[in-house]
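User: We ran a pulldown and think these components assemble together. Before we commit to crystallization trials, I'd like a predicted model of the whole complex to look at. Sequences follow.
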Amino acid sequence: MTSPDLTTRRSMQFWFDFGSTYSYLSMMRIEALAQQRDVAIEWRPFLLGAIFRSFGWDNSPFVLQKEKGAYVWRDMARQCGKYGLPWTQPSEFPRRALLPLRVALVGAQQHWSGAFCKRMMQINFVDDRHIDDPDVVARALSELDLPAEAIVAAALSEQNKRDMRAQTDEAVRRGIFGAPTFFVGEEMFWGNDRLEDAISLAAR
Amino acid sequence: MTSPDLTTRRSMQFWFDFGSTYSYLSMMRIEALAQQRDVAIEWRPFLLGAIFRSFGWDNSPFVLQKEKGAYVWRDMARQCGKYGLPWTQPSEFPRRALLPLRVALVGAQQHWSGAFCKRMMQINFVDDRHIDDPDVVARALSELDLPAEAIVAAALSEQNKRDMRAQTDEAVRRGIFGAPTFFVGEEMFWGNDRLEDAISLAAR
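Assistant: Here's a predicted model for the assembly, 408 residues in total across the polymer chains.
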């Protein structure tokens, strides 16, 4: 969705983590919705776990608060049904996603960003497999006809690691407290339930 | 919305607290939506603060987690704009609502339940005034041509106080962790964003 005319087109930021359940819903929906409204997506992978740690939490609130956690699995199944998306409750939650997120950062300005990100989400929330695994990531890139080795090397470069930390610091600075989060200018929208509202504002 | 044929009509439970921001949105919307789908509403006032205390929290998560709290005020203003509802950010949050909730429990099976509950919400979130006040509650009842003194006396009876505690215990037992919450049979829906889904399930 990123394109040379990004600066002149209306755009929105999509902040996500591959471990985040509700980010899965938005990831699978955002490209079609944004395209319909001619809105460009700025892909913003970040480390949600670092945000939680900044609040003094050592895990996802869906794990720390068991009542909400139990609800989330039921809600996710229903939401996927509503959107026509496949769904498998992951046997491990939240899944680590550091390498895939670093790759997504490398790809954020590239044509393959959406396809790669959707594939990572599907591996986690449909195939129920680990995603923080060099083989899994490389295979996904190869299946997209991309130079997997070079991209993984770029993802693991010191510069990209610093960029990933800087991106997460920016999330903290902007007041992000969960994922997915959308920004249209300074206007923040939290949660898949606000995706349509965010796109509508961006398209105005 | 409650009526003699409640047991045969499709119905849903609406669990709310007058101090809850997102319960305000649902309170102002639920009657019209339920009527369109011929769904009866079971009014379920409960003490959200007691639920939070059962999690070890001494206040609303919107107060305890300042990033989320800051977002909620912006989101509420936008949501009210979307639904065409008036909105004033309350100068005190969360407002105590024990007496109004006890009155709502007395009225749960009565024709005036929705009108009274909406009025309490408007006083909190539009007029920005205290609601846990006998004069405010009595005036609201009188304006609905109801016997205010008798209803407040019933609300303050030992039986009704016990019933209020029992209702909140039931909320805990059912896994409720926030408000508004809707139940259609055993199916739980959390948040104003799920109101339409809950009504659709009830209407099926």
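Chain A has a mean pLDDT of 94. That may be worth checking against your pulldown data before setting up trials.

User: Thanks, that helps.
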